Each structure stands twice: as C-alpha cells, then as structure tokens.
C-alpha cells in the first residue's frame, strides 16, 4: 500500500514522502495514528495544500519535545522486581511498565513512545529510548532491582554480579593470593643461606 507520510517515521521516510508499506502496518499504525494518508490523487493535493500548516505544527511539537528532553537529562526510573541469584527476573519488564514508571516520575508520555524491542528480563541498569517526537529521542536509565538499596547502588554506577559469578570471583581471588604467597615463600627460601654456610661478606672496595 502506498501512503503519504504526514511526519517523519523512523525507518520509513520523511514528511511528504510517498512510500510503499505493508497493508497491515498502514491500517494498524500509520493511518489510525494520523501519521499518513492513503496516496490517492485527492490526498496528494490535500497534503500539498496543508504542507505549510503541517510543517509549522511539526516544528512546534519538535520544540516542545526538545524542551522536555532537556529536562530529562540524566533521567532514571526504578522498578523493584523479584529475581533469582543469577539476576534473572521472575517475569519481565515491558514497555508499558517503563511508560508507567516515567509517568509516575512526572513526565507524561504514551506507551507507544517507549522503544523496547524486547522485554527486560534481568536485573541491572538498562538504557531505554523514549521517542518524544519523530526527531527527538531521549535515553532513560531503567534501574531494575530487588530493593531500593540495590537500585541506589546501580544509580551510583555499580554493577550487580550473579551469586555464582561472585563465588567464582572470590575463589579465583583466593587462589591468586595463595599463589602469590607461595611464590614469596619460595623467593625468601632461595635467598636464605644454607645450613652451616656463613653469610657472604659484603664486597669491599680495593684501595
């Protein structure tokens, strides 16, 4: 199906472009969201007659989105979830969950503005794109943690480690420390004089 884009659509085209898209994408998204019109001759003339008005409206919305994006610098939200020792969630975090958290934090957005290709299924700090406008995108840090303390640790730049990995790191560190201690003992032993052997006299400078 051919449509005329009424605004920039990511991976599709710019405002005013006549593009061919899948019928389902047009019927389920572009047309009901008023992002496009069917590319009929009548609609092409209609678009050209309203082009300046559409461009002015788009510019205003873009400026408003940029103002919101400026306020959302270093923006983060926290979602408390239960998870296993391997950091895998008992469930997942969806785009709707992220949208609700952003709204609760004081910024009004819609679920469709959250770009989350697949649900979040692990604890940690995840960067999620929020499309405030077709040309304005902001990254939001989504902190998925088991407690407020864990979320605070993540917000400070910390990284969660799975229990099995932590144990492995502790064992590796202990083994390395033991090796270093053994190497030190061997060095000390090799430098010590043998039984019954007098220590070597320090060298004297010849006159």
Automatic annotation (TrEMBL):
Domain Ribosomal protein L9: 13-40
Region annotated Disordered, chain positions: 179-207
The keyword Transport is assigned to this record: no
GO cellular component, one term: ribosome
Top-rank taxon: Bacteria
GO terms assigned for molecular function: rRNA binding; structural constituent of ribosome
GO biological process: translation
Keyword Chloroplast: no
UniProtKB keywords: Ribonucleoprotein, Ribosomal protein, RNA-binding, rRNA-binding
Similarity comment text for this entry: Belongs to the bacterial ribosomal protein bL9 family.
Task performed by this protein: Binds to the 23S rRNA.
NCBIfam families: L9
Protein name: Large ribosomal subunit protein bL9
């Amino acid at each position: 199906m051919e449509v005329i884009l009424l605004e920039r659509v990511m991976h599709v085209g710019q405002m005013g472009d006549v593009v061919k898209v899948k019928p389902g994408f047009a019927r389920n998204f572009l047309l009901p969201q008023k992002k496009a019109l069917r590319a009929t001759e009548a609609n092409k003339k209609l678009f050209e007659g309203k082009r300046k008005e559409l461009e002015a409206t788009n510019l205003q919305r873009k400026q408003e989105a940029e103002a919101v994006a400026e306020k959302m610098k270093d923006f983060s939200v926290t979602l408390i979830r239960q998870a296993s020792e391997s950091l895998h969630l008992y469930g997942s975090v969806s785009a709707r969950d992220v949208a609700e958290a952003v709204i609760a934090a004081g910024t009004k957005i819609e679920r469709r503005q959250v770009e989350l290709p697949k649900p979040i299924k692990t604890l940690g700090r995840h960067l999620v794109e929020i499309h405030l406008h077709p040309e304005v995108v902001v990254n939001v840090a989504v902190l998925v943690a088991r407690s407020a303390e864990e979320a605070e640790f993540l917000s400070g730049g910390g990284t969660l480690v799975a229990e099995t990995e932590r144990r492995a790191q502790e064992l590796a560190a202990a083994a390395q420390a033991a090796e270093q201690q053994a190497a030190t003992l061997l060095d000390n032993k090799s430098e010590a004089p043998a039984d019954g052997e007098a220590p070597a006299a320090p060298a004297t400078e010849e006159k």
